[in-house]
Amino acid sequence: MTVEAESLNRLRLRTSEKWRAYPDDVLPLFVAEMDYPLAPPVAEALHAAIDRSDTGYIGPDDHTQRAFTEYAQRRWGWDVDPARTRTTTDVGVVIVESLRMLIEPGDRVVITPPVYPPFFDFIPEAGGVVEEVPLLEGGTDGTGWALDLAGLERAFAGGAKAFLLCNPHNPLGLVHPRAELEAVAALAAHHGVSVVSDEVHAPLVHSEATFTPFLSVSDDARRIGVAAHAASKAWNLAGLKCALFVAASPEQAERIHALPIEVEVRTSLFGRIATEAAYRSGQEWLDGALAAIESNRALLALLLTDRLPHVRYREPHASYLAWLDFRELGWGDDPAARILEEARVAVNPGLDFGAQGAGFVRLNFACSPEVLTDALDRIAELVRR
Length: 385
Known about the structure:
The structure is a single chain. The chain is an alpha/beta fold. Helices cover 41% and strands 14% of the residues. It has helices spanning 8-11, 17-20, 40-51, 63-76, 91-102, 119-125, 149-157, 178-191, 219-224, 250-257, 261-265, 269-281, 283-307, 335-343, 369-384, and strands spanning 27-28, 85-88, 108-111, 129-132, 136-138, 144-146, 162-166, 194-198, 225-229, 243-246, 312-313, 321-325, 345-346, 348-349, 360-364. Helix 3 runs antiparallel to helix 12 (269-281), helix 4 (63-76) runs parallel beside helix 12 (269-281) and helix 13 (283-307) runs parallel beside helix 15. The N and C termini lie far apart (42 Å).
């Protein structure tokens, strides 16, 4: 099944942030929303709910959790007990509520910038204090990025109580190797540190890479960890509000089920219906979307080589977000501002992802090849001037 982006005219009928935040002359390549049509099984499930006037509160069933656990087994070979899962509104709520149950007010929580901007806000919302252990630029082998295991050990030994892991890592599309995740689990367990793993981009791992769920790597990981999962990024369902807490030990399962009932009942019924349909029947559509994403990933590399050779780019191995390094062009710490003002292309400022993002931008390439080419031509025109 092929999946192609919708036309710009049709996309501008959408009322989501991506299509309302800027005027119509701006190409919106910022927020993590794809320009592809909704997966047919999801659309059919939602239409069926409307047809039967099924618009009330969520009821006491675990169909969505079971759909996720069956998907996890099919896709990643990961056995999850649906009784050790629970739904809520979105991944941000999973993270905040998980941290609240794992730390005390004032405890330090480690993040690894450059990283998803809300991480900086989730931790104080949960009562914690942010501690940064930046990723190693260049990675351990000089070819990419990697977790700074020595830095994490120093932070854990120094009293940090939790680690908020981004797996796969946004904005880099970094798929953490199993060995690194095993090392994180061992270090965290040794120092009594809890790990909350944001795995919302997991279904979007590319064909050449392998996603490893954090809770699958060891007994240590299962004992100290909680994971956040959702169909929101992979199937464009963010507005429908459904995500899952996932635990892999009796102790962590007991903790997530001890959270107030309101954490669960705020789940959207439509979100639960759509999520179940995505996990059960949406893989063919997702495979088509991933093929389009990987094609655009390669196109972006060609366009940069041809039009913007001084912009450095390492192809991501997950999701549809490119982390572009504009530092050689000398456009300052926030090249996104100039790109928006002069090229009329909206991208995310790198500084939103931490101080390590100075001179970078994040670009969403889950669009048509024509839109991507137009965006790069507009930016390249700034260099030609």
